[in-house]
């Protein structure tokens, strides 16, 4: 095993332009830890956002990246994982991440990859699919089964609509017109182009007397608040980006519940039982992808050496799909 490895290192205050390909000492796993040799890494919006915004635990040379997949290269004391096992993971933002040849992880959160799933496909699952799973878990059963997913062309919402349909929910969505045919083929009953000023009126006409039970917003807290009036009595407003700092509707009106989704917080605030539940859910989602029960977003391949350029394209939204790099 080498003593150093290639990583993308972060520079404070320099954003994406400050990412530099550097060599760092190869970390060694301590008790409860596992060292994974990355075979694929996937990009998520949180990656470019934290590169630009910064993080309290980051310093010169910190390695960004939350999602990856690879093989177990070394284990620490108390870890029962065989060397060479194929695993996927979602890394804490407070530690060196996946934009590297190796990644040091909490062994309790790594997920086994099904034998019939390509490792690059597995890398693209953890952040978006687990976020979708968490978002749906926030919503209790109600009198209505109608839910609305905002931004269903994105990776999180694309997984979310599929899981929701499979749970028996009646799913409506907003997305660019190029996504409509595929979303309807997945069981979405109606898709509206968010660029049309009257899409809300069309949704309400289609719902008729049925109330909207839940709304999943992937845009921003302010955007979610602007749509709260669409929800019925005792409905659920789920923010996948940001959160609601103030109630968006008057008290004692429709009495909606407000939810935030914070997948990465499990590393700092989750107990062992929370991490175990996340691992089980992740492995179930990976199995569904392997069996074709969950379709992944279109994959956009890029070279590890061009990672900053791919992050920039993800930020600009110039291509629709999931950016994944395969490492030798």
Automatic annotation (TrEMBL):
Keywords: NADP
A GO term, aspect molecular function: oxidoreductase activity
Keyword NADP: yes
InterPro entries: ADH-like_N, ER, GroES-like_sf, NAD(P)-bd_dom_sf, Zinc-ADH_QOR/CCCR
Taxonomy, superkingdom: Bacteria
One Pfam family matching this protein: ADH_zinc_N_2
Enoyl reductase (ER) domain segment(s): 14-325
Gene3D superfamilies the UniProt entry points to: Medium-chain alcohol dehydrogenases, catalytic domain (3.90.180.10), NAD(P)-binding Rossmann-like Domain (3.40.50.720)
Name of the protein: Alcohol dehydrogenase
Organism: Pseudomonas putida
């Amino acid at each position: 095993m080498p003593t150093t490895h290639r990583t993308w290192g972060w520079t404070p205050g320099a954003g994406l332009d400050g990412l530099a390909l550097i060599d760092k000492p190869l970390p060694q796993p301590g008790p409860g830890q596992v060292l994974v040799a990355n075979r694929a890494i996937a990009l998520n919006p949180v990656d470019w956002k934290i590169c630009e915004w910064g993080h309290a635990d980051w310093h010169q040379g910190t390695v960004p990246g939350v999602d990856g997949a690879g093989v177990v290269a070394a284990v620490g004391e108390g870890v029962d994982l065989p060397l060479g096992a194929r695993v996927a993971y979602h890394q804490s933002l407070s530690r060196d991440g996946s934009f590297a040849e190796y990644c040091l992880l909490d062994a309790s959160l790594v997920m086994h990859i099904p034998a019939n799933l390509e490792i690059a496909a597995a890398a693209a699952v953890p952040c978006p699919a687990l976020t979708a799973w968490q978002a749906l878990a926030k919503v209790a059963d109600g009198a209505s089964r109608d839910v609305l997913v905002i931004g269903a062309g994105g990776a999180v919402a694309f997984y979310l609509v599929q899981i929701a349909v499979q749970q028996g929910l009646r799913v409506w969505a907003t997305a660019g017109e190029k996504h409509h045919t595929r979303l309807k083929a997945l069981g979405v009953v109606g898709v509206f182009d968010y660029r049309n000023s009257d899409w809300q009126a069309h949704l309400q006409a289609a719902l008729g007397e049925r109330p909207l039970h839940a709304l999943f917003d992937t845009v921003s807290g302010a955007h979610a608040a602007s749509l709260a009036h669409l929800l019925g009595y005792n409905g659920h407003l789920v923010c996948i980006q940001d959160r609601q700092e103030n109630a968006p509707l008057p008290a004692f009106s429709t009495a909606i519940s407000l939810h935030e989704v914070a997948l990465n917080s499990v590393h700092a605030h989750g107990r062992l039982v929370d991490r175990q539940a996340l691992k089980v859910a992740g492995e179930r989602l990976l199995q569904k992808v392997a069996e074709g029960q969950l379709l992944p977003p279109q994959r956009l391949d890029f070279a590890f050496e061009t990672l900053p350029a791919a992050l920039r394209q993800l930020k600009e939204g110039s291509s629709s799909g999931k950016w994944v790099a395969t490492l030798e």
